[in-house]
Structures are given as C-alpha cells and as structure tokens.
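Re: the 202-residue chain
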Amino acid sequence: MARVKPKRHPVVVDMTAMCDVAWLLLTFFILTTQFKKPDVETIKPPSSISEKLLPDASLMTIDATKDGKFYFTPVENGSERLQLLDNMGQKYGMSFTDQEKAAFTKVQAVGVPMTQLKSFLKMPEEEQKAYKSPTGIPMDSTKKELIDWVQQSLAVNPDYKLAIKGDVDTKYPKVKGLFEGLRDIDFLKFWLITSQEVGPTE
C-alpha cells in the first residue's frame, strides 16, 4: 500500500518589514548626501597617489585657475559668513545692506576685488554662479586681498581649515606668492586638492 505523502505548503515570507527598512535607508542617504558643487571655472588639478580625504566641516577653499586668477570659497555656515563679511567691510571701510548680506550667505565663491563686491552681490544668483571674473581676487606684492579673506575668516573661527585647488598649468610665481602670503600670517598648514593617480603596483 502506498505511503500517504503529506501536503506541502509553500513558504510565505513577509517582505513588508524589509521594504520599510529599504525605504528608510534610501531616504536617509538622499537627505544626508552632499553633492559636490561645480567649480566656477574649469580647474584641472595635478595628480597624486595620496588617499587622504578633506574634512567636511569648517573648510574654506582657494581656487587658482591656469591663468592665475584666485577665487575664495568661505565656509558653509551662514552666520559665520556674515561675521566674515562684516570683518572685511570694517577692514576696507565698507558697509553692506541686508540684501547684500543675504546674497553673501548663498554665494558659491568670491572672485572679485573688494571694490566690485557690492555690485557682484547685487547680481541674480544664477548670474553669480555663471560669472567668470576677469581679474579674480587680487593677490600680489601690492595687494593681498586673498590673504585678507583667509585672515578675517580665521578671526571668526581659528579652527577653520584651508584647502587649495590649483590648475596643473598655474604659473609657479602665482602659487609661490600665495604660499608666501599665508606664511606672512603664520598660517602654515593646509591641504592641496589633487586628482587621484594610480599608485605603483608591487
């Protein structure tokens, strides 16, 4: 007599909890991801095999284009940006309206002399992002406005860090002048932004 086979029941897996977890993780990553801001001008940095990462917070950035123009990006903190603008205004004998201050908290990078800063801040936001300065921030033996931006930023918060991104074709005297200016204010530790280079294989 044939043996009675027990009836097989399909395995049922409740995926509701897994879907909830997946959506929570997806939402978390979308909300916390910080997208890289595009450069004001195209800069091709030199390559290196260094794998050190830049700090995320309290970072100010200097961009040096291949034709020797300098741009300065303040830290992201809005209230500290306003303090920086006030410091620079006091140093250069300027005052700023509430609208100009609000525009400065959103500015991507500063690339104009102080004499042109007010007119730059009055531009619409999209024009500011697309604006390519013909001169950049002055940085030479007679005018060191770029160093003033760094120095007044450190007056707001001495713990600020600095990263410098220079084009591989930037002339050496321009870079040397920047380094000497930073040395003059006794600011000797900063990061150099490079592109990733494949290290030697063993």
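The mean pLDDT is 84.
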